[in-house]
Amino acid sequence: xxxxxxxxxxxxxxxxxxxxxxxxxxxxxxxxxxxxxxxxxxxxxxxxxxxxxxxxxxxxxxxxxxxxxxxxxxxxxxxxxxxxxxxxxxxxxxxxxxxxxxxxxxxxxxxxxxxxxxxxxxxxxxxxxxxxxxxxxxxxxxxxxxxxxxxxxxxxxxxxxxxxxxxxxxxxxxxxxxxxxxxxxxxxxxxxxxxxxxxxxxxxxx
Length: 206
Prior knowledge:
The protein has 206 residues and is an alpha+beta fold.
């Protein structure tokens, strides 16, 4: 039986997660995919499909724009567009590759389109609490064409107690990291900032 084809980007991401625990992959999405998803995000936002993001848990969950100023629209696989289905298929291939390489027990994906209006930020946080969350791998794919350094909007990933790396939101770049390990934040941008955020999940306990 023929072995399954190995995607070099998937292999690199698996190696990075097994090592430092985070990875940056420029060119994960090509220009056509970036443009199609960005156009859909803008169209959906114009139609009222986006909602302000909230922070907190349970009854404390609320819209607090000083802490988190983005708007989001969850991607529903059951009614996804062609461009969204293409992205979901690529991420499904990545999920299988990470399970083969790292035995992470990744069960499913949740994903959302996101927009940060100019000046919006997301203060330092972690996507999953240690030992208590079902998010295992966090990802963000950027949909911004012709992004310049002066536009800002970098993802600041705190890789250890002494050091942080800043990743500009260049169109086509995919960033992935272990959800429980890394705190991160989104710095304010001078222009609209578009992305797809996703998480690979493990099964919830009984």
